[in-house]
Amino acid sequence: MEHTEFNKDLIEFLNASPTPWHAVNTMKTRLEAAGFQPLDEREEWSLQPGHGYYVTRNGSSIVAFRTGAKDVVSSGIRMVGAHTDSPCLKVKPNPEIRRKGFFQLGVEVYGGVLLNPWFDRDLSLAGRVTVLDDNGKVRDTLVNFRKPVAIIPSLAIHLDREANSSRTVNAQTDLPPVVMQVPETDTTTFAELLKQQIAKESGLQTSKILGYELSFYDAQGAALVGLREEFLASARLDNLLSCYIGLQALLETSGDEPALLVCNDHEEVGSMSAEGAQGPFLTAVLDRWCGAGKSRAIARSMMISADNAHGIHPNYADRHDENHGPLLNQGPVIKVNHNQRYATNSRSAALYRHISDELGLPHQTFVVRSDMGCGSTIGPLTAGNLGVTTLDIGVPQFAMHSIREMIGTRDGYTLFQVLREFMQRAEVF
């Protein structure tokens, strides 16, 4: 896969994955096409050497792995981690709001959303719905309206003269999107609208909506940007970009060495869930794969936690340490924080740099300013749970947690090449 082909396929992946459930479904489809076999946590597993497998939890997290041709305990596992969720606006359980003839939906802020960019965007709606079908069976189905169905209009500057100097956003009162106009006598429920959409998408006839997890998302698709198309803009680059990179690396590795990709949900809200990185999902999979030799396998393993980094913004260059300001299209960023907000140590960073240098590929390093707080990701959580040597790395980006983010077109492909080599490397340490 070449650079331009990589970005074209990345755009298709991003557009097909508006929610964690859709992202996992997209990954499942690609894994199965490559011969990976699905596993069920409720059943016995019989894992064979030289095969690929995957298992999901909650439909929003996935672990995929190649068993390799060698014994996993003596070889260790080359692991890559990412997360499927992104900050967004989620529909409340009883969302209907009727004001002045407008039908709106109440929303809850999920994660650390940069709120102002959500105004005046064409919004669509997608997620998972649990229904009672006409046969009396409880089942899940995915929904994606695909077209623009809502908008959060800004208040005109004539009615808010301080908007450009001191505008704040009240998440309760300012964010409910407008979805349609209705007469005063209207009694439409959101559940009725969902039933219609489900029938339209899948032909599934439902007698009742029992629950849902639905998110609004930017209806504008991912696109190349710039006079020379050196940038890529999209929603959910944090962190579907890393999910895609890890998936492609796993699919294109030789398969000789044991290798694994884990993409967890709920990173943006702390990862403490059954399917989050602070939960037991990955440990449960490794227990069943490695058995009594898991501790020895982990001691020979390494995890690369891939989550995007803050590129140095030309308008806000002073927000970075002057010696650690990553540039777009200058390579993936090794993330360092000695207070363990990132799990990188000199050993894990050295291995990445060594592989990258062998391939003739660029890399950068990020350290937050000493007078600013540092974010975190799944790396320290996975390292703490498993005791595995871990590196935190990411593609540099702008506008993190905005409804539309931006990366350089070369950095994702660079990280993919290094991770592919890492996953098929005969020795890690």
UniProtKB/TrEMBL annotation:
EC number: 3.4.11.-
InterPro entries cross-referenced by the UniProt entry: Peptidase_M18, Peptidase_M18_dom2
CDD domains: M18_DAP (cd05658)
Keywords noted in UniProt: Aminopeptidase, Hydrolase, Metal-binding, Metalloprotease, Protease, Zinc
Domain of life: Bacteria
Transcription regulation in keyword set: no
Pfam families: Peptidase_M18
Any one GO molecular-function label of the UniProt entry: zinc ion binding
Gene3D superfamilies cross-referenced by the UniProt entry: Aminopeptidase i, Domain 2, Zn peptidases
SUPFAM superfamilies: Aminopeptidase/glucanase lid domain, Zn-dependent exopeptidases
Root EC class: hydrolase
Cofactor: Zn(2+)
GO cellular component: cytoplasm
GO biological process entries: proteolysis
Sequence similarity: Belongs to the peptidase M18 family.
PANTHER family, per database record: ASPARTYL AMINOPEPTIDASE
Protein name: M18 family aminopeptidase
Source species: Marinobacter nauticus (strain ATCC 700491 / DSM 11845 / VT8) (Marinobacter aquaeolei)
